[in-house]
Amino acid sequence: xxxxxxxxxxxxxxxxxxxxxxxxxxxxxxxxxxxxxxxxxxxxxxxxxxxxxxxxxxxxxxxxxxxxxxxxxxxxxxxxxxxxxxxxxxxxxxxxxxxxxxxxxxxxxxxxxxxxxxxxxxxxxxxxxxxxxxxxxxxxxxxxxxxxxxxxxxxxxxxxxxxxxxxxxxxxxxxxxxxxxxxxxxxxxxxxxxxxxxxxxxxxxxxxxxxxxxxxxxxxxxxxxxxxxxxxxxxxxxxxxxxxxxxxxxxxxxxxxxxxxxxxxxxxxxxxxxxxxxxxxxxxxxxxxxxxxxxxxxxxxxxxxxxxxxxxxxxxxxxxxxxxxxxxxxxxxxxxxxxxxxxxxxxxxxxxxxxxxxxxxxxxxxxxxxxxxxxxxxxxxxxxxxxxxxxxxxxxxxxxxx
Length: 402
What we know:
By secondary structure, this protein is mostly helical. It is built from 16 helices and no strands. The radius of gyration is 22 Å and the shape is globular.
């Protein structure tokens, strides 16, 4: 009886009610094939990095201590995962219930984003086993110490928030009901920890004005990092909701969500924050006496591309889409804004970093492939969880009115 019950649970919860052979046939898709090839090479490369060291797998040098695993996986990854605290604060703290339908997907995206970012960080560290020292040392004067502690604490908070749908899926009422009641407190903690380390990441560059190009360096860069995290959170939720409603349409059957209203509401918020960020960045350039660098050389022209094409343009598209109730325009703006955040973080940490050094860092193919693998694993994990747990669909007890 026990074995039959266990087999039934596995088939229902893991195999989605299908027989093993039928479930395996559903996995034979082009997307899964490409993902398998990426991971089949990427995971051994990740283990090879720990076996052979950074020198054998990366193009990092003594003058370029960090590369794509920090600039993209860490700094970009946690920015794009900011939808968790952004939407969580809107729903739980400010009472904007119209965004309740996208709260759980945003939290799940944030949780997975942070997990992948932490893996990228561990891969970048020369001696990753020394990470445990942050729990035993008093480094309160170090920005990195603050970032490390806030990332650890925020990841734990996201894990507790994600535990609600996880234990709903398992049917463990004595755990998920108290966690539901604690969501407000968890959201307050998530806003606090996320705000601290998002801005602290920018503070890492304040102490290196000679290393970072004047158009990107500013004493207010910590505020810019926080604002771009909010922009990334809003934009990622728009992109993710559009994809989720297309890919996971079967999860939403029988539910009535005002997708148009949610998207347009996020578009208004995106327009406001992007406009503010654009003009504050200009003020930062003026205060830093860097106006003369605009359009000068490759980096001067590249800064214009970032600001006009990936900040001003999506802000105007957000505003136009919200004003004319064009969901398509808002989604295009969100996509451009997400690319802009990626561009900004890569520019700050790699492209414009150590800009006067004639021998500039170019990531190795192994670094790029490992980063692609981590992104692929995040997407696969998101899809696996959403197909099984009550992330998009309403929990059974709430649907029944309990």
